[in-house]
Structures are given as structure tokens and as C-alpha cells.
């Protein structure tokens, strides 16, 4: 049995890495793709993981396959295709390490994943099935994603969902909202940013927006990531803001994925049903998730920046003060 199976995009993040002798930008080739990043965190924390997705049968695709294998993420359902190239994303960072993206995906191999290419037994054997919205931007991967998550739900697998809004990959915000909402129907664990929360609800007050989603879609656990301000969670009558940690930010790529990987790890190792988790337990889990996300911002790239368990624990032990609000 797998702890977590994720379906979605696997791509190359070209991350800024200084200037050449001619004062031109240099970019470093890093593995990327939110679902793969989440699995990378879990694999580093000794969870059994499996990735479902598609890359090009090109040097980038072979590189990504090799990276997943090297970090012990399962690749039995990673398809290499000659019908489209591996998707490329160029990451541009501002002075605070915040990102802007340029995508080369017209089409990208990740968009071409078909239902017949999935081994559904992998999903059935998982404790958690994780997916995002980027695999729903285009067909055929859109229908494939929804079929896979529907199957996971039918089989009683815990479903984790990250809407992961990237405006450049959608025709417009209305289309993004339409298909991002389709994922909400299946979510047991929802991780959203403030921007995604506003898009999905039209509300600016976090507590009200979360309550709206909780009631409309019957989502057991909703977590909102708030950058350097920390996180907010709501589960039934339990809710709290959990502050983050102060670090020197180099690159925020993958921080939200690191957070979610850390949270899923905590939920899995506690060996309790989601509905049985209490507020203080969840707050401690999210404190751990905040630490993972914070640590990932201190290095370039996403998968290369994933910390080991000892590094996370040492980091948390060295922090002073109470991290609950």
C-alpha cells in the first residue's frame, strides 16, 4: 500500500542563478510541478509515494524521471510521451524571493495524460490521493484528473486538493474558477492561498470565505497558507491562526507544496481518522507544516530545497516563543 499517490504536472523550473560574465541572467534547471513537490517532501520523510503523470520523451523528461527515482518517489505510472515536449517554466524572482512565471506549454506533455494510461489499482491502494488544478486546465488531462479523483473517492481514499491558481495557464479567471470548483466537490483536505480563496469565494475575510467553502462543499479540513504570516485552519468547530517562522527567503518556489507535504505527513503518522483530530493536535501539525514551508524558501528550487526530518526538528527546536495564535 502507498501512503500518498499524486496525479498532475511534472515539469522543469528554470530558477534564476545569478549573472553570466556578460551580465545576462543564468537559469538553473530544477525539477518542479506541485504534485511532484508534495510527494518529494513525503518521500524525504520516509513515506511510500507514487506519481501519476506524463512528461516528454526528451532530455528534460528523462531528467525528471531520474530525479523522482533518486528521491524514492514511485514512477510506475510516469508516462514518457513523444507527442509533446516536457513543460518548461521560467521562474523570475523579485527582491523578496517572490515568484513570477513564464510557461512553455503549448501543449506540454502533462496536459496529454489520458484515462487509459492510468493504473487505477495504484490509486485504490493509497491512503491519500492528492491532486491540483493545473492538470485540469486542458483536455485530455482535465477529464483524466476528474476520473481519477472520482475513483479515489469511490474507494474511500482520503483526498487532498490544492487549487494552485496560475493565471497564465487559464483562458481567464472565470474559466479557472469553474474548473477549480470541480475539485472542491471531492476534497477532504483543502489547501488554498489567500488569492485562491478570494477567487473561489469572492470574499476577502478569511474566516467567512473558509466557512462558505466548508458549508457549500462539505470539506472536513481547510487550510489557508498566508506566506510569512503563517496559516489558518478550520475543521468543524476548531479553527486557529498558526504563525510561521522568520527565515531569510531566497526562493518561495515550492513553499506551499512543502507545507502540504508536511501536513499530510503529520496526518499519516498520527494514525487517526481525519474527523477524530482535535484543534490543538491540528495546530501542532500545522506548526510542523509551516516549518517545512519556511525551510524550503531558504534555498533555490523546490525538490532540491526539501529538508530532512532531523533538519525540520532541529529548526523548530531552535525557534523561540509560542507559535500558536
How would you describe this structure to a colleague?
This protein has 325 residues and is α/β, with parallel strands linked by helices. The chain has a single domain (2-318), classed as UDP-N-acetylmuramoyl-L-alanine:D-glutamate ligase. Helix content is 36%, strand content 26%. It is built from ten helices and 13 strands. It has helices spanning 34-44, 59-70, 120-124, 141-154, 173-184, 194-201, 206-217, 255-270, 279-296, 309-318; strands at 2-7, 11-19, 25-32, 49-56, 73-81, 88-93, 99-104, 126-132, 158-162, 189-193, 221-225, 231-235, 238-242. A nine-stranded mixed beta sheet has the order 5-4-1-8-9-10-11-12-13, with helices on both faces. Strand 11 (221-225) and strand 12 form a beta hairpin. Helix 6 crosses helix 7 (206-217) and helix 8 runs antiparallel to helix 9. Residues 321-325 have low confidence and may be disordered.
Amino acid at each position: 500500500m502507498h501512503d500518498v499517490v499524486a496525479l498532475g504536472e511534472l515539469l522543469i523550473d528554470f530558477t534564476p542563478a545569478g549573472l553570466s560574465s556578460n551580465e545576462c541572467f543564468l537559469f538553473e534547471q530544477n525539477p518542479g510541478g506541485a504534485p511532484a513537490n508534495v510527494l518529494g517532501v513525503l518521500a524525504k520523510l520516509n513515506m511510500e509515494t507514487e506519481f501519476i503523470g506524463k512528461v516528454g520523451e526528451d532530455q528534460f523528461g528523462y531528467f525528471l524521471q531520474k530525479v523522482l527515482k533518486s528521491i524514492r518517489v514511485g514512477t510506475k505510472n510516469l508516462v514518457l510521451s513523444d507527442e509533446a515536449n516536457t513543460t518548461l517554466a521560467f521562474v523570475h524572482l523579485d527582491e523578496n524571493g517572490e515568484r513570477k512565471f513564464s510557461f512553455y506549454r503549448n501543449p506540454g506533455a502533462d496536459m496529454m495524460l489520458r484515462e487509459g494510461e492510468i493504473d487505477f489499482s495504484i490509486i485504490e491502494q493509497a491512503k491519500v490521493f492528492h491532486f491540483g488544478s493545473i492538470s485540469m486546465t486542458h483536455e485530455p488531462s482535465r477529464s483524466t484528473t476528474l476520473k481519477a479523483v472520482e475513483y479515489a473517492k469511490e474507494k474511500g481514499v482520503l483526498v487532498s486538493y490544492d487549487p494552485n491558481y496560475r493565471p497564465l495557464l487559464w483562458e481567464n479567471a472565470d474559466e479557472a474558477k469553474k474548473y477549480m470548483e470541480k475539485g472542491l466537490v471531492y476534497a477532504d483536505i483543502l489547501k488554498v492561498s489567500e488569492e485562491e480563496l478570494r477567487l473561489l469565494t469572492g470574499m476577502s475575510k478569511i474566516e467567512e470565505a473558509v466557512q462558505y467553502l466548508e458549508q457549500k462543499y462539505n470539506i472536513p479540513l481547510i487550510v489557508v497558507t498566508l506566506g510569512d504570516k503563517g496559516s489558518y485552519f478550520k475543521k468543524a468547530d476548531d479553527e486557529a491562526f498558526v504563525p510561521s517562522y522568520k527565515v531569510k527567503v531566497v526562493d518561495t518556489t515550492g513553499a506551499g507544496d512543502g507545507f502540504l507535504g508536511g501536513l499530510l505527513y503529520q496526518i499519516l503518522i498520527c494514525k487517526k481518522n481525519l474527523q477524530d483530530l482535535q484543534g490543538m493536535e491540528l495546530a501542532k501539525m500545522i506548526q510542523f507544516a509551516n516549518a517545512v514551508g519556511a525551510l524550503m524558501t531558504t534555498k533555490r528550487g523546490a525538490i532540491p530545497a526539501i529538508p530532512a526530518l532531523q533538519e525540520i526538528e532541529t529548526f523548530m527546536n531552535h525557534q523561540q516563543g509560542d507559535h500558536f495564535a
